[in-house]
Amino acid sequence: MFMNTVSAMWSKWWSVINEKKYGKLDLADIVAFSLLVLSALLFRRAAKKSREGTRLPPGPRGLPLIGYLPFLGTDLHREFANLASVYGPIFKFWLGSKLCVVITSPSLVKEVVRDQDTTFANRDSTVSGLIASYGGHDIAFASYGPDWKKMRKIFVREMLNNTILDNLYELRRDEVKKSLRHIYEKINTPVDIGNLAFLTAINAIMSMSCGASIQGESAVIDAADFKKAAAELMRLLGKPNVSDIFPSLARFDIQGIERDTKKVNRVLRGYVRFYH
């Protein structure tokens, strides 16, 4: 209809020009025709730019404001497999204001995580992730850039260097010996191997990084508490959060995830200070 109006105005203009009846073409016609032509050009340009700028993969339609959120079940892998059978190996859907793109083929995974890894390196962090990493200032949650490259360089050079690991072999062996000695002293007594193994790993890491470890009868109990706090942090990091889907609601902390993450962070920070 819009283009038909422009076409009609153009026909009127052209007929008047051909008949040389310039007096019949008043100022209102000229202004209206100019505005219509300009609007048509701008509309066409905007539509073209929109198509070029939002070249998104296909995907299911969602509801206003909440997107596809109500239609996702608990078995996400099954839901994604069903969507892939309909829309192909790459598809999109919206969760609130967040755009989600899912890839399901090995070739696309290779393209994303290896061939184009720097392009897809950054993504929105969760509320719990930002709190756990003190604002995204660690190697796991930091955005790709100069700071992340510097942290990675230090991490690889100072912690994963083969020479350094070989030099610290005695520290790791000492921690394993202490754990074996603890088991030997507890003959005929139940021993929680899980907590003891966790304590051994933590002590080995802390011994190599800051030269300290926790010992004594309370060590296993402390390790159990530390393990429980770490497991709780992992649970909070993986728990769906309304604040992540609707950032405007983050200030209300509806599910209490921000509060709980800060609480766990304080517990873990206390253990780190104890080692120091």
UniProtKB/TrEMBL annotation:
Single Gene Ontology MF annotation: heme binding
Pfam families: p450 (PF00067)
PANTHER family from the UniProt entry: FLAVONOID 3',5'-HYDROXYLASE-LIKE ISOFORM X1, OS08G0547900 PROTEIN
Name of this protein: Cytochrome P450, E-class, group I
Species whose genome carries this gene: Parasponia andersonii
Lineage, top ranks: Eukaryota, Viridiplantae, Streptophyta, Embryophyta, Tracheophyta
